[in-house]
C-alpha cells in the first residue's frame, strides 16, 4: 500500500523522545507500531491531523525522528502485545512483523512503573518524592542515552479513581516526574495528573508547556459537534443519556465506579459547555470483556422543536479506541515538542480540540476548537511571533 506524501519535517531533524506512561497498553502499542508503519510508507497517516495541509511547514518533528520509551507496571513485551492487537483486528495483519525492530527498540526503553494499587507507600518502601525522583531519572537517562534533543511525556495509562485525600495518585507522580526531568507533559487520560492542587506551583514555575486532559476520541467527539448544533438552531435539549459497552483494559478499569466517575466528568462538561447547561441524563459504562479493544456507544437525545413538538435523536458509535487515540497521541507529542522548541509554556488551551476536559481557556465546540488549533499551527511556524506563555 502506498502512503500519501508525508508533511513531516525532514528525517535529518533532531530526534525527539516520546515517553509513554502505560507504554505496553493498547494505545501506546498502536501508536508505536503506527508511527513506524507511516514513517516507512507502509500505511497512510489516516487520523493524523498534523499530517494535513494546515500543518505543513510548522516545524513539527518528523515521525521518523520520534523515539519511544516509557513506564509500565506490566511486563508483556510490545511485539507480543502487537500480535494480540493484530489478532483482534486492531492492527493490520502482518504489521507486527513488518515493524518488529521498532517495537523491540521501544520495548527496551520501557522501565518499571508504580506504585501499584494496594502497595504500602509504593511496594518498595519509597516516599512519593522518591518515586518522582526515580521516574524523572528514568526519563533523563532515556534522553541522554539516546542523544535526544528533548522528550515529551504522554500519559496513556488506564483511568484511575480521583484521589480522596491529599496523596498524589500515580498519574500525578508521573506528571511531577516529567516536569522535574524538564519535559512537557500531556495527559491523554481522565486521571488527575497535573490537576492535583499540590502540583499547581510546580506546573506554574516549570516554564514548560502542558496539555490535557482525557482524549476526545468517540462519543464525546460527536457530542462536541451535536451540542452546538442544537444550540445554534435554538432547539431545546430536554435530556441526553448515553451508554458505553467496552472491554479490554479500559473496560476493566472503568468497572470501578470511582474510575468511571472520573471518566464521565469530561463527557458531562462538554454538554454543559456547549449547551449552556447540563441536561438531564447520565452516561453508563459497562465492562464487556468479549468486546476486547472495541466499543459501542449509544446516545439518546430528547429535544423540543417549534411549538413544543417533541423529538428524539439517537446515535450509535462503534469503533476501536486504540486506533482512534493513537494518531492523536502522535499529533500531540509533535505539537507539544514544537511548542517547547518555540519557548511556549503553561497550559496549551489551543489543543482543546483533542480533549474532553482541556486545560486553559478555550471554546467547547469542535469547529471553534479546530480553528484555534489551526491558528496555533500558524504560530509554530519559523518566523511567527510566539508569546512566552500560553493562557
TrEMBL record:
Myo-inositol-1-phosphate synthase GAPDH-like domain: residues covered: 218-322
Name under which the protein is recorded: Inositol-3-phosphate synthase
Family: Belongs to the myo-inositol 1-phosphate synthase family.
Any single Pfam family the record assigns to this protein: NAD_binding_5
Amino acid at each position: 500500500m502506498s502512503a500519501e506524501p508525508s508533511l513531516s519535517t525532514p528525517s535529518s531533524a533532531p530526534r525527539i523522545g516520546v515517553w509513554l506512561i502505560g507504554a505496553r497498553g493498547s494505545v501506546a502499542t498502536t501508536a508505536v507500531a503506527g508511527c513506524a508503519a507511516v514513517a516507512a510508507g507502509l500505511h497512510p497517516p489516516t487520523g493524523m491531523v498534523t499530517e494535513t495541509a494546515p500543518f505543513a511547514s510548522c516545524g513539527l518533528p518528523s515521525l521518523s525522528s520520534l523515539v519511544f520509551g516509557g513506564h509500565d507496571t506490566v511486563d508483556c513485551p510490545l511485539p507480543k502485545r502487537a500480535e494480540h492487537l493484530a489478532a483482534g483486528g486492531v492492527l493490520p495483519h502482518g504489521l507486527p512483523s513488518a515493524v518488529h525492530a521498532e517495537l523491540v527498540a521501544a520495548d527496551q526503553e520501557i522501565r518499571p512503573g508504580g506504585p501499584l494499587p494496594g502497595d504500602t507507600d509504593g511496594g518498595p518502601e519509597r516516599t512519593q518524592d522518591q518515586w518522582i525522583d526515580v521516574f524523572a531519572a528514568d526519563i533523563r537517562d532515556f534522553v541522554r542515552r539516546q542523544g535526544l534533543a528533548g522528550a515529551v511525556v504522554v500519559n496513556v495509562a488506564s483511568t484511575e479513581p480521583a484521589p480522596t485525600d491529599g496523596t498524589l495518585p500515580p498519574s500525578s507522580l508521573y506528571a511531577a516526574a516529567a516536569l522535574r526531568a524538564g519535559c512537557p507533559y500531556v495527559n491523554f487520560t481522565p486521571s488527575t495528573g497535573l490537576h492535583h492542587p499540590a502540583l499547581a506551583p510546580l506546573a506554574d514555575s516549570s516554564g514548560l508547556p502542558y496539555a490535557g486532559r482525557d482524549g476526545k476520541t468517540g462519543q464525546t467527539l460527536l457530542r462536541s459537534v451535536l451540542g452546538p448544533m442544537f444550540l445554534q438552531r435554538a432547539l431545546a435539549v430536554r435530556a441526553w443519556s448515553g451508554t458505553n459497552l467496552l472491554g479490554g483494559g479500559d473496560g476493566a478499569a472503568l468497572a470501578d465506579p470511582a474510575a468511571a466517575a472520573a471518566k464521565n466528568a469530561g463527557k458531562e462538561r462538554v454538554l454543559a459547555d456547549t449547551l449552556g447547561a447540563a441536561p438531564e441524563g447520565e452516561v453508563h459504562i459497562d465492562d464487556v470483556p468479549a468486546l476486547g479493544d472495541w466499543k459501542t456507544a449509544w446516545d439518546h437525545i430528547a429535544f423540543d422543536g417549534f411549538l413544543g413538538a417533541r423529538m428524539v435523536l439517537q446515535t450509535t458509535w462503534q469503533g476501536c479506541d486504540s486506533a482512534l487515540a493513537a494518531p492523536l497521541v502522535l499529533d500531540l507529542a509533535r505539537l507539544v515538542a514544537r511548542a517547547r522548541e518555540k519557548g511556549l509554556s503553561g497550559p496549551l488551551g489551543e489543543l482543546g480540540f483533542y480533549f474532553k476536559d482541556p486545560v486553559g481557556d478555550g471554546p467547547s465546540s469542535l469547529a471553534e476548537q479546530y480553528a484555534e488549533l489551526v491558528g496555533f499551527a500558524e504560530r509554530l511556524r519559523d518566523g511567527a511571533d510566539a508569546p512566552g506563555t500560553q493562557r
